[in-house]
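INFO batch 0412 | record 1 of 1 | parsing
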Amino acid sequence: MEAWLPVSEWGPKREVWRQEIINLHGAEQLESMIEGWVEAARAISASGGNICLAQSGRIQCPVLLLNGTGEVGNTPRDVLHLCETIPNCDLVFVENCGHAIHKDQPEILEGQINSFLDKIGSK
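INFO prediction complete | emitting C-alpha cells
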C-alpha cells in the first residue's frame, strides 16, 4: 500500500481505480481516502496485522454486517469469517451493490437497518 502514495504520482496503471473512487466519492475525497487507507494499513501492520479478527470475538453487542455482492475489497469469504468470530452477528449480502451500499442501494440499507433494530428491540 505504500506504493499508493503520493496519489499525485498515480499513472495510467491506476487510472481506472482513480476514476472509480472519484465517481463514487468525489474528486475532493480521493487523496484523503487513499492517505487514510494507507495510514490504517500501517496501524494494522504495526499492531500485528489482524486487528479485526483478533478483537472481534470480544464484541458484546448485536452486530449487523452488510456487504455488497459486487464488493471487491471485502470478499464474501472474509466477511463470512468475520461474522463467524462475532458472537451475535447477522450478515446480509446486498445484491447488485458494491462497496457503497448507502449510494448503490439506500432503500435496502435503510430496510436492513430497521429490520435489525426491530429484531434487537432498539428502535
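INFO post-check: The helical segments are 15-25, 27-46, 51-56, 76-85, 101-104, 106-120.
INFO record closed
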